[in-house]
Design a protein that fits this description.
alpha/beta; nine-stranded mixed beta sheet; four-stranded antiparallel beta sheet; 15 helices
């Protein structure tokens, strides 16, 4: 393709179902909807892992987390593998990254062009996410739901600063004589679920948000999910229906807030006269369940957690178009290369991603298998997903049965077909496809060993448990709210 400017907008923990252009009539997302109307929506895009730090490693490297040991939020990307940012910079393309990256540190060696960055704390991250086999429960995530509502938080102010910094770059710094790449990383709609009163009011009454049948009947969930809900205390014995619905409303309001910050950046692009020379990618690191299947937040392989929004727009790209083929977050790397007019080198050709342009043009594999993995806290053993066509397999290491869903017939994942013996041949076929990508049992052992080694090197499990879970990464100190 003809090289052009590339603008990448990446938010944090955005469930695509909470977007107007993905068919939700309740949510208010005018800027993303307008971007979709003048671009292409990928309806079935997935993360490589439903947890922040390893998902962002996959986004940067174009590879699955297991390939380099990015297991959890305590194993961040440190620049040891090439990223698309390094590749663009080496080719003479200006690279600027504003906002959240969630990498090891702020240095150019990790990722070029970082401005007001958010990376993992102390260069390491959250050690609790590496502690998978601990007794007892954690209240940290449950408390986020119960505290949802009107309020202020650092993420709101930080995202406004990110949007304004991106707008300033586009208006005053973006080169006019050669292509550039600007990455803008927002933190919302990741919790804290605190929003201005005027935004939350948009989603009253809160009882308009339905309660999923699984909320009161977790016994119908897979045993691994039942245990996950107990461990995180996200269940009806700790959280009332009213608290749950208020939290969902607050999440919707955060999506609307994030959409407004996207609007700030897109308006600056227009004012700078750069729309005709810039292609735009909007995506997310992973989703947020927000009540579906009686679950909340990330970490699971249900659609709310593992599926991501993905929109591609540009002056030479189809408008108002929708792609139903399955795609992955690892496709960002080859896509950015193609948008920048750079051929893939031998190492890049071995990566699992496929350029979205190739898929858009109908030149990809329509039956391609999409893969995701999870090796962090909340589950004793690793969890894997494989999606082929409309069928999705979820493989739980340590359990005698998987889950299987036909997402065309059952998009809300209410009927687990793995309980029906007639689907056993299909399960075996998809299990083989999964084993063609990795050995789930071996990766469970490998990830656990790496995590145990890290835990031992940081003083042992008891010392880490005393520190507790960090529910969200702190913003850079300059953007912390002043008491």
């Amino acid at each position: 393709m003809k090289p052009m400017n590339t603008l990448i907008l990446c938010c944090d923990q955005h469930n695509p179902k909470m977007t107007g252009c993905y068919g939700n009539p309740r949510v208010i997302t005018p800027n993303l909807d307008a971007l979709a109307a003048r671009g292409t929506v990928f309806e079935n895009a997935y993360t490589a892992t439903p947890i922040c730090v390893p998902a962002r490693a996959a986004l940067a490297t174009g590879n699955y987390p297991f390939c380099h040991g990015y297991w959890d939020n305590a194993h961040p990307y440190s620049g040891q593998q090439p990223s698309w940012g390094h590749r663009l910079k080496a080719a003479g393309i200006d690279v600027t990254a504003i906002g959240k990256l969630h990498f090891a540190d702020d240095t150019e060696a990790v990722f070029p062009g970082q401005r007001i960055p958010m990376n993992v704390k102390g260069g390491l991250g959250d050690l609790m996410t590496a502690c998978r086999r601990t007794k007892g429960t954690t209240s940290k995530l449950r408390e986020q739901i119960q505290a949802a509502g009107v309020g202020d938080c650092d993420y709101l102010h930080y995202d406004q600063a990110i949007a304004n910094a991106a707008a300033d770059y586009l208006k005053t710094e973006a080169p006019s004589d050669h292509p550039w790449c600007l990455y803008v990383g927002f933190t919302t709609p990741h919790y804290p679920l605190k929003v201005p009163a005027e935004l939350l009011k948009l989603y009253e009454p809160f009882d308009q948000f339905p309660i999923d049948p699984f909320w009161h009947h977790p016994e119908h969930l897979h045993p691994a999910l039942q245990k996950y809900k107990e461990t995180t205390e996200i269940n009806d014995s700790h959280i009332s229906e009213q608290e749950l619905q208020r939290a969902v409303a607050a999440y919707y309001a955060l999506v609307t807030f994030m959409d407004s910050q996207v609007g700030v950046v897109l308006e600056a692009l227009r004012q700078a006269g750069l729309e005709a020379t810039t292609r735009i990618l909007y995506l997310d690191d992973h989703g947020d369940s927000a009540g579906e299947q009686g679950l909340f937040f990330k970490s699971t392989m249900n659609e709310g957690s593992v599926r991501i929004p993905l929109i591609l727009s540009g002056p030479d790209l189809p408008k108002g178009y929708r792609v139903r083929e399955n795609v992955s977050i690892v496709d960002l790397y080859p896509t950015v290369m193609e948008l920048s007019g750079l051929p893939l080198n031998a190492e890049e050709q071995s990566l699992p991603g496929v350029s979205l342009i190739k898929t858009l043009q109908g030149n990809g594999d329509p039956h391609r298998c999409i893969y995701s993995e999870y090796h962090a806290a909340g589950f004793d053993n690793s969890v894997f997903m494989l999606k082929k066509d409309q069928m999705k397999l979820i493989h739980y290491v340590g359990y005698d049965r998987p889950q299987l869903f036909d997402l065309a017939a059952d998009p809300e994942e209410q009927r687990d077909l793995a309980l029906d013996p007639q689907y056993q041949p299909l399960i075996e076929e998809l299990e083989q496809e999964l084993h063609n990508i990795c050995d789930p049992e071996a990766l469970n052992v490998q990830s656990m060993q790496d995590q145990q080694n890290l835990i031992a090197s940081k003083g042992g499990l008891e010392a880490i448990l005393k520190q507790g879970l960090t529910p969200f990464t702190a913003v850079p100190q300059a953007y912390e709210m002043k008491s």
